[in-house]
């Protein structure tokens, strides 16, 4: 599912196994549990935390191939639940008291790209993999909060068009040129190594993590509010519907 490793003040969260790392409630909950462990490990007081950084990466061909649509296909409420849980995960990342780095080690598609884009920095391997918003090709509408995140993180209108209205499969060097990611590297291993070097540089700045997180929340205030608040209603409605079905 996922593992969490600590190297000094660098936390490395890895999606494990050879599969596509499809985002379903079980995997999302596992990632959120790891983030809670990190938050508890670095928080010293309500206003202070030890300087740290998070790197998220994955094993195998895929960073994440998006939502687990096979799990969700039985009901619309399952898709809503999955979406609300990913919103909660993104809210966790936005409020995490440290810089966050996605080391994209393979294909990052649809919700999998959204997960990567939710980090402060995005590094990617150039020898294999692409980022891809597949919704146009598979005839699915994008959640409004997906669009809000992409608008806040991808500055070029042309780059947003190519991602969303052309469904381009964008490789690392092109993604750097378009301003979608920060850097490209020759292998998965080199991508993670570069992420660790970047993480160490950021930790060395010795920023107050809570101040860092508050500035990030203010910077992404509309997105954070939507992710933080709308999920409660969706999960509540899902639980009510299922309790009625099971009676």
TrEMBL record:
BP-aspect Gene Ontology terms: fatty acid beta-oxidation
Reaction(s) the record says it catalyses: a (3E)-enoyl-CoA = a 4-saturated (2E)-enoyl-CoA; a (3Z)-enoyl-CoA = a 4-saturated (2E)-enoyl-CoA
SUPFAM superfamilies the record matches: ClpP/crotonase
UniProt cross-references to InterPro entries, sorted A to Z: ClpP/crotonase-like_dom_sf, Enoyl-CoA_hydra/iso
Pathway it works in: Lipid metabolism; fatty acid beta-oxidation
Pfam families attached to this UniProt entry: ECH_1
Enzyme kind, highest EC tier: isomerase
GO MF, one example: delta(3)-delta(2)-enoyl-CoA isomerase activity
GO cellular component: peroxisome
Family from the record: Belongs to the enoyl-CoA hydratase/isomerase family.
Name of the protein in its database record: Delta(3)-Delta(2)-enoyl-CoA isomerase
Organism, scientific name: Pyrus ussuriensis x Pyrus communis
């Amino acid at each position: 599912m996922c593992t969490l490793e600590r190297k000094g003040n660098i936390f490395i969260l890895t999606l494990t196994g050879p599969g596509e790392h499809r985002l379903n409630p079980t995997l999302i909950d596992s990632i959120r549990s790891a983030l809670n462990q990190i938050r508890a490990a670095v928080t010293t007081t309500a206003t202070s935390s030890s300087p740290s950084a998070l790197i998220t990466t994955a094993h195998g061909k895929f960073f994440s191939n998006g939502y687990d649509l096979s799990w969700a296909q039985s009901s619309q409420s399952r898709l809503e639940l999955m979406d609300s849980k990913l919103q909660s995960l993104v809210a966790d990342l936005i409020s995490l008291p440290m810089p966050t780095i996605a080391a994209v080690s393979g294909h990052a598609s649809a919700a999998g790209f959204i997960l990567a884009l939710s980090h402060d920095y995005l590094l990617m391997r150039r020898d294999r993999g692409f980022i891809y918003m597949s919704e146009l090709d598979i005839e699915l509408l994008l959640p409004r909060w997906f669009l809000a995140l992409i608008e806040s993180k991808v500055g070029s209108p042309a780059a947003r068009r190519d991602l969303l209205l052309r469904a381009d499969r964008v490789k690392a060097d092109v993604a750097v040129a378009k301003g979608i990611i920060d850097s490209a590297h020759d292998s998965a291993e080199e991508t993670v190594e570069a992420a660790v070097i970047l993480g160490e540089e950021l930790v060395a700045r010795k920023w107050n993590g809570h101040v860092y997180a508050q500035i990030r929340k203010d910077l992404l205030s509309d997105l954070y509010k939507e992710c933080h608040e709308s999920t409660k209603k969706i999960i509540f409605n899902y639980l009510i519907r299922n309790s009625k079905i099971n009676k």
